[in-house]
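We read letters as residues; the integers encode the fold. Take this protein.
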Amino acid sequence: MDLVAGGVLHGRLAISASRFPLVRRSLPTPSTVALSAALPGCPCPPIVRRNAPAVVPFAKKKRKGYRDDPPDEEAGEADDLVDEMEEDDEEEEDFDEEEDEGDIMDEEDEDEDDYDFEDDFESDDEQDLYAGDGGAGGGISLAGTWWDKEALALAEQVSASFDDDLKIYAFKTAANLTIRVRIEKMSTRYGSPTIDDIEAYTIAYRAKLDDAESAGKIPQNISLEVSSPGVERVVRIPEELERFKERTMYVRYTTTSDEAAATPQEGDGVLRLISYDMDLRECTWGIADVKINRQQSGKGRPLSKKQREWRLQTPFESLKLVRLYSEC
């Protein structure tokens, strides 16, 4: 039996390569390949070739117009098959490249759309943020369900079990049977709990909720979420001014002029606390030395003299939102 690229010859009969495509086969032993010539009427012994490769490779396509031997029908069919396979591969590669380019353009368009949307969303979210909202602003916010007061009482019991070291910063219930709790650690300077603290509080609170569910005091399958106050937590005025006086803060405030009929003007900025007076219930702010403020003086330049000397004196009541500011 003679192996040729594209077909097998049995005597003088050729099996078309189009019906039996080229394949790679691994022979049983890499050192010996036995080729038998079984021609009718010719009982020839098998021809053995040693140290032959274990895989029969495809014949390489020859350069156009170049021919070593006179063409025959079987070789022509094999070359045509190789040409068709290579043309199909090239068409598939071109098609894949066009699809990739289209995907890249679509992703760029989506990125632009997402960028605008996220900017608007963050802006709206900050407008809705306020102290005591039960979320990032801290405080208690109940949905008015028949079970939320019981859930709050259980959360306070869990906090007391940790000697009030893990206190409730924010507590919020929702009508879809969800409880969201933010806890702060009072033994740390800025109240940031660790992962272990959050896990311990979650396990203790979950156990009390399960007992209350079994007793019918709260509905079944309540979802619980426990987290920290967040990097840019809201600062409660005035009780937390002393605690965070050395931190940079984002401040939104209102100012009024001496005219009685004047409409209060709202302003905001990234500021630092200079001083506060609990008796007069007012505080003084200066511009914080952070990147967003330095950029107003020019790229790579420090705060200007005017910025360093700027002061804002405002009563506590005019502070609409004060939260920690992070450049990360």
In short: Residues 1-71, 101-125 have pLDDT under 50 and may be disordered.
